[in-house]
Amino acid sequence: MSGFGGGELFLADCPARLAVELIADKWTVVVLAGLSKGPVRHGELIELIGGISRKMLTQTLRRLESHGLVRRHAYAEMPPRVEYELTPLGATLIDPIHVLTEWARANGDAVLDALDAGSEPIAHHG
Predict the structure, then answer these.
(1) Where are the alpha helices (DSSP H) in the chain?
(2) Crossing angle between the packed helical segments 42-49 and 54-66, to the nearest 10 degrees
(3) Residue 42 to residue 51: CA distance in whole angstroms
């Protein structure tokens, strides 16, 4: 039996569904993990994450900021400096992200094996 409640949990306009859609985005979990150790500048996040364009990182950070998970702090310095950090709400996702990361480490090979097996013709019984 799953630990999920009634069928109304993931209705289209349900806050829980909107939250799941936010964290299910390709870059959200990676960006949040990159911010988990404290404030980071945009360029540092690019290096930490790897494989993300500056434009995509900016879009992801803006979306996370608008949803209350990330805080942007611009310092009045020359040259200007901007740092991003998790809000208290964003920090509540770090433990679940850690659990998902551990699951991925433990099961990554099995997922790849299943993917490889899926490229073979499926025998139909019946």
Answers:
(1) 15-23, 28-34, 42-49, 54-66, 88-91, 94-118
(2) 110
(3) 14
CA–CA distances in Å: residue 59 to residues 10, 62, 67: 25, 5, 12
DSSP string across 74-85 = EE--SS-EEEEE
pTM exceeds cut of 0.85: no
25-45 per-position pLDDT tens digit: 889 999 999 999 999 999 999
Cα–Cα distance, 27 to 25 (Å, whole number): 6
Cβ-contact 30, 55 below 8 angstroms: no
